[in-house]
Specification:
Chain lengths: 541, 227
Amino acid sequence: MGLPIDSSAFPTQSSVLVLSLLLTPAASGILVTVTRKKRPVEIITIVSAALILVQAALLVAGVISEKQIRAFGDLFLLDAFGALVMLPIAGVGLISALYSVNYMGRQYDRGTIDDKHIIRFYQGFNVFMLTMLLVPVSNNMGTMWVAIEATTLVSVLLIMLYTKENAIEAAWKYLIIATVGLSFALFGTVFFYYANITAVPAETGSETAMNWSDMVAHAKLLDPNIVKTAFIFVLIGFGTKAGLAPMHTWLPDAHSEAPTPVSALLSGVLLNCSIYGILRFHIITLGTLGDSFSSTLLLILGIVSVGIAAASIYFQKDMKRMLAYSSVEHMGIISLAFGFGGFFGIYGALLHIINHAVAKPLMFFASGSISQKYETKSMSEIKGIIRNMPITGGLFLIGGLAIVGMPPFNMFMSEFMILGAGFGSGQFLASSLVVLFLVVVFAGFMRHLIKMVFGNPKPKSAASMDSSSEMGKLSVVPMAVLAALVIVLGFYVPQPLQALASDVIHIFNQGSDTPATSIAPIKPAAVAQVPATSINQGGLG
Amino acid sequence: MVDSMILAQPDILMLSSAGLLIATFAVVVRRGFVDWLSAYRYQSIVLAGAAATIAYFAGAWEIYIAAALTLLIKAIIIPKVLLRVTRKIKDELKTEANPYVSLRLSVVIAALLVGLSYALTRQMLPDSTLDKVASTYLPVSMSLFLIGLFVMVNRRLALNQVVGLLIIENGLFLFTTALTHGLSILIEIGIFADILVGVVISSILLYRISQTFDTLDVGELEKLRDD
């Protein structure tokens, strides 16, 4: 006999934890605003990022044992999928905060930026963390949209920190394209909500009808035609923010012009948040329409992204732009993998999200230090990194080899799994195309990487005259931590990650008609029956 | 009183729909930034009225709040912010000299887009599933969305992209309110906050662009390329 107390009226332990997770960056942002001194502000941000990581780890541990955590009634819901997105946000957040001290400090010493910029940077950094953390814990899809739009606004402010022409141009394009994109996403979200309240009229006007958990529970009842339209809008919208081609045009500008610690967050974890938005609706759509519709669309966008990124990487001249295009490529691979579906498709995609979140910040940090050393981002000017800065050069090489999918590094494992899922489910055309594109990426990326790392340093360049080789401990340590993860994750996947991943596969199956059971090797999912080319499957019906 | 309201219903719906569309067309045919802002202000006032109408028929108090917020934020604050920030920008930078498609042709295209919106709405949401209010407002909201997009891609001025976005957003608000009688008020407030912050950020950027590039022509913003 339960006591006649509405438990949701009292803050439960999980509510407190979720609330304090969100309040930490908010409080830290306020403290930064009040303190206004360089050194204390750096410490506040690092402490806050560390606290966020600890709390995120606690929440993830809770999710592993209890499957999901609800807070404030149904407003917040953290399940295994959210946990897998939240963990990299917290992890990269802390590493990035540490790296910022060195990177922004150097910009400060050079006079590129002054105290005002430093304060703005750390304010923005903390608010950016807050908005990103809000995404994986939102159960209400409206809240999630508001959070994702807020990430755009904050990151625009962070990009326009430097008042250079390039930064302003990049910030403008990003603001406009991402906001238009997200208005499509809001359209789609409202359509899903409408489908939910027409299917279950009792829900009209209720607070829960916009909750993901509610929509998924009613997935089978929703009107298939509305869901089709809605998913297309959501895919275009969040796809724009996730940098899926052909809506990716803002991404290389924004990611390359942002201050390096911000680039790492944008590429490594913010893109995941948007992919996460698409996939939440993908799960609902799977329940309503079965496997073929949304999976095919994800597959097509994925292949296009990898293809366009491959061509752009091959002919790239700017180091940070190359890394940005590589993010387009990897978001494409993730989208594709969820399109393949099945056990290995989803498992591989989840690992790839984590692996990319580890490897890409490593690359951005290294490239940030390198471009500070060489005072350019143009790859033709950067030669012989390994001689000028041996540690950074070595870590840059490790990250680069991982990014192109070389064994024994982490991304090889997830890409191998994903392609295995593709061929295993009979998607031969799609899988072969992707293999072809990945070969182009490999050739292009390696060509640039080898020249930069091992080429002959130009005599009399700024680098050779500078006696101190590395850029300081606080720039090397974050990179070394990430490089260690890149290597470790190449050999084995820690038990907690495995547990989370198999829970996520369960979440994907809960709506789907043809569950791909966990341990058995892929039973070709229904996706298999739809060749990648049959685009007309995706029509408006 | 109630009887007369019900009789007057189609008229109010028709009048406000017409008002919303006229304001949108005003943006399409005008060249000056101040004109667009007044058109936008006028549109937002009508939009608030439309929302209040929906609130009356749906009997939902949340929509009255949303209508009041529309009036406050979109009809008063946003135009003020944009006007103030752009006051320092030279006038010749703020006038649309040569859009990609001539203004005359733009009107024709905008009219076609309105037709398309009616067709699309029929296609996606058959009339039988909608009430009177929704079936009148949905095609209008779709028109605002599409014409907003058209204004954004057709014009060269960065100011136009902001106005286009605002029109798109008005379309979205009408769409949401007419179709679902509003999201929960918490989310509406979140969306309003996002818009307001977005407008503030874009006006800072507008100012910086005009200072750095000495133009607001987005065609000139092309330093960042792959070659």
